[in-house]
Structures are given as C-alpha cells and as structure tokens.
Specification:
The chain is mainly alpha-helical. It has three domains: 4-161, MgtE N-terminal domain-like (MgtE N-terminal fold), CATH 1.25.60; 177-295, CBS-domain (Roll); 316-479, SLC41 divalent cation transporters, integral membrane domain (Tetracycline Repressor, domain 2). It has helices at residues 4-11, 13-35, 42-62, 66-74, 78-86, 90-97, 102-110, 114-121, 126-132, 138-147, 150-160, 167-170, 184-193, 219-224, 248-258, 278-295, 309-315, 317-335, 338-343, 346-374, 383-413, 416-446, 455-479; strands at residues 177-179, 203-207, 213-218, 242-243, 262-266, 272-277. The chain has a three-stranded mixed sheet with strand order 1-2-3. The chain contains 23 helices and six strands. Helix 2 crosses helix 4, helix 20 packs antiparallel against helix 23 and helix 22 (416-446) packs antiparallel against helix 23 (455-479).
Length: 480
Amino acid sequence: MQTRDTIRHQRDLQGIFQELAALLSRQDVVTGLVGRQDTPRRELVQNLLQRQQSAELQRKLQQLHPADIAFALENLPPERRALLWSQVPEKERGAILLELADPVRESLIGVMGHEEILSMAASLDPSAVAALVPMLPREAALDVLNALDRDNRKEVQSALLFPRDSVGSLMEFDMVTVREDMSMEEVLQSLRRNPSLPENFNQIFVVNQDGGLSGVLAVRDLMRSDPAALVRDRHDREAVAFHTDDSAREALGAFERYDLISAPVMNSHGQLVGVVKIDRIVDFKDEMAQKERLSQVGLSGDEDLFAPVVMSARNRWFWLGLNLTTAFVASRVIGMFESTIHQFVALAALMPIVASIGGNTGNQTVALMIRGIALQQITPDNLRRFLSKELQIGVINGFIWGCGMGLVTLLLYGEMRLALVMLAAMVGNFCVAALAGVSVPAALHYLGRDPVMGSSVLLTALTDSMGFLLFLGIATLVLI
C-alpha cells in the first residue's frame, strides 16, 4: 500500500521531472568519468555502472503513472527524451504514447523498430489501438491491424472512420450490456461471471433484441433493486445518448451540463456500438483548451517545445508577417497626423493608452464569443442581439473609463479640449473593440475556419489601427 507521502510525491509533476532529469544527468556523468579512466577493466566497470544506473531509473519509472512519464518526456530535449524512452519497458510504452502530445509521440514512434511497435500494440485495447494507428508508419499500421483478431480488427477499423473531433473518435468499445427481459439477479450473476469487466463503469446499457439501445441501468439501482425485478421495469429510458457522428464539442457540453460520468454511443441505425467516458471528455477538453490558447496568438497547438529551430520558426512566419503588416498600417495611420502630433506632443504619450485599453476589452468579447460558438450558444438568430449588448457595454465602459482618463489628462496638461478628445476616443475604440471581438470569430467560423486561430492577432491589429485613427482624427478636428 502506498503511503500518503508517496501519493503526494507522485502528484508533484515538477518534482518527478526534476528527479528523472537528475537520474539521466548522473548516468551521463558516471559514463563520462569512467570513459576517461585508462584501466584494463574500464569496459567492464562502465557496463556495470550503466546497468546500475539503468536499474535505478527503471525502478523509478515503474512507480510512475504513464501520464507522469509522458509529462517528463514532453519536457526533455530530444537526446534526453530518447535516453529516457529507451528505459521504458515495452509493455508500458503504448499507454504512455497515448498520453503524449502528437509531435512528441511521432518523434518517439520514429525511433522505434518494427517489432517494437508490434509488441507495444499487442498490449493495448482496441480503442487505444485505434487512437495510435494513425500515427504509425503505413507498413507498421497494417501489420498491427493484421495482428488483431477479427472482432478487434473490425472495431478498430470502425473507429478509424470517424473524424477526430467526433464522438466516435472518443468512444470505447469495452462496455457492459444486458437484455431488458433479464432479472436483476441474472444481471448480478452475469457480472460475477464476467472475467473482464471494464474499469470505472457506473452504468449498464440495456439493449433490445435488435441490439438497439433501450436505456441504461445505474449500478446503484442494480444493487438496491429487488433481485426478482426485471430490467425493463428499473432502467432509465430517458438517459443521455450520442451518435458516432455527433460533435465532440457537443458531447463536452452535455457532460458538463448533465454531470455525466459515461454515456452510450449509437451508430446511424440506432444500435449500441460503444461508450464515451468522462476521462476521454476531460482529455479532449484539455487538448482543445491548450490549442485554443496557442491558436489565439497564431501558434500551432501541436508544436513540440524542442522541435527543430527551423521548423518552429517557419510555423510562425505567417502570423508574424500578418502582424508586421498590420503594425505597418498602424504606423501609416500615425504618419497621417504627423503635423498634429508636432503641435501637441502630449498626443504621443496618450495615444498608446487608447489602443491598449481597446485591445483588452476586445479580448474579453472574443473569449465570450469563442465560448458561445463552442457551446452552440451563438446562433445567427441571436448574434445581432449579442453584438448590440457588447456595443452597449462598450459605450458604458468607454464613457466611465474615458471620464477617468479625461480627468487625469486635464490634471496633467491643463487642457479641457484634450481631455474631451481622450473621452471621445476611448468610447469610440471600446465600440470598435466590441465590434471586432464579435465579427472576427464570427467571420472565421462562417468561413469554416477555427474561430480561435489568430483572433487575438487580428483583434489587436484592428484596435490599434482604429484607436490611433480615432484619437488622432478627433484631436485634429478639435485641437486644430
């Protein structure tokens, strides 16, 4: 049994990473010291020390969860990553690969031999094999499929047909089903005789004679019911269920809304084919959140931290070029009002405030807009109402904070007209930010693009350019 201290240590991801990194560094140091010694038994001593260091590293790896090892692998540079991977037992590699980010997974699969891949895949269940096969070399993928028995191969091939962002790609095939004409006692006996019950199941799926889903039977209801009662009289016919082609985002919303732990999945004919569980939904949510955070600034959500420099640089060219273009446009806007700035030097100190505050409020609107699109709360029918609300908020906040900055401007420069310019420009740019925060994600979504991708870059470009234009344009009209 693990002690409380051990459990706490295993949850300290950074501590785990530091310990594994230290073991790898110690192995390098020992190997280097022995290699510099000129003794007859140098090779023997070196082999003994390497075995000792490897054994210590492997003992540590055996104590860790696959997700913890995956965390360490993702945070190691390529040469250390390969060294740590070489110490992982083959039977554990499949579970670790499923926890890794795509680029790291691809890099490790690339250094594995054909037989290693086949041995690793043999320890995985069909749903795990289905997740791994698209990452394998073509020849290895075919051999992995051919090594499966007929039923498992059919399940894997079915799972590979579903898009990555569908419920079918998240479902598992290992589930417990019963007929609706069985008694509770018969169900209990069936469970006792089943040598391979799935892990962490909280409900049993009830099917009719045609294999269609009739409802679900919660395990707690099974335990509390009269043994002579029939399943058809106790199961829930209104349970939440999904189809294989449903959006994974829709499933995420349903799991959050109804506090689901698992849910049945049906094919287009209404037949039960799998189950989607909360752990896969949480993984999908985390992956989606990470990609969205990076996509907002134009980065790929799948980029390896230690990918080759040229590849990483090339991945950023498009958005850097776009950002440079928009910055040039903003500079030209400022250049249009050079004479105004020369006459009123205070404008140069104040105009960055207008642009930056607009970008901030715009990002707030973008975050709400993206969330609304993801949860299908934003529709063509209510988009105009949402835009109207954001514009009203922009006017209110712009007026309040514009008055504050206008007062500060008046105290600093003693110029009432300049304070009024500040107020008007802030109200205007708040409205521009609200309009851009709604229109940019909506336009990307309408064009079939990810509304997250580069939205922050585009928003900043619009609020900067329009902020400068509004501030300097109003100043030119009022002050000159």
